[in-house]
Write a structure and sequence with these properties.
Elements (H helix, E strand, L loop, with lengths): L11 H20 L5 H13 L3 E2 H8 L3 H13 L3 E5 L7 E5 L1 H21 L5 H21 L5 H11 L3
Antiparallel strand pairs: 1-3, 2-3
Helix pairs in contact: 1-5, 2-5
Amino acid sequence: MIGRVTALDEDFGFTLGVVFRAYVKATNVAVGDLPGGHRGYQILTAAVRDQPESQSALCQQFGIDRTVMTYLLDDLEGASLVIRRPAPADRRTRLVVATETGRKRLAELDLRLKHAEAHVLAGLSAQDQASLKALLGKLAAHANAADPVGSACQVVQDIAASTPQ
């Protein structure tokens, strides 16, 4: 909204949408050919930074349908980024574990995403960036507590259905 002021510049939905679209474009470029795009990044992050999680737990955490998760994990496993191994306590449960290749790829992606985020937030001072992130975190926690996201897939479908082509 640099240079041109419109009547919608004070409309929360409009401004949030503009920032969201810029973020999606920048992060799509940053994750490149990673299977599953940004979702694949989230799964890889969980596999590297968290204790190994079951497929079911990851579905719940990210609001991803089980069928979609299976395909996503198949693709990430095919790229040698994660493996699924039986849980020691319950061999029917599969844990998602990052490979060494996955760990290296995540380090590269983290740097690329940091640059993408900096690009989107470039219009703000460092202090304003920190404030914005803190406020969005609070707002997201409140919104999720009030209306938990059961399926990220459904949210995306709802957004797509309501967006004029």
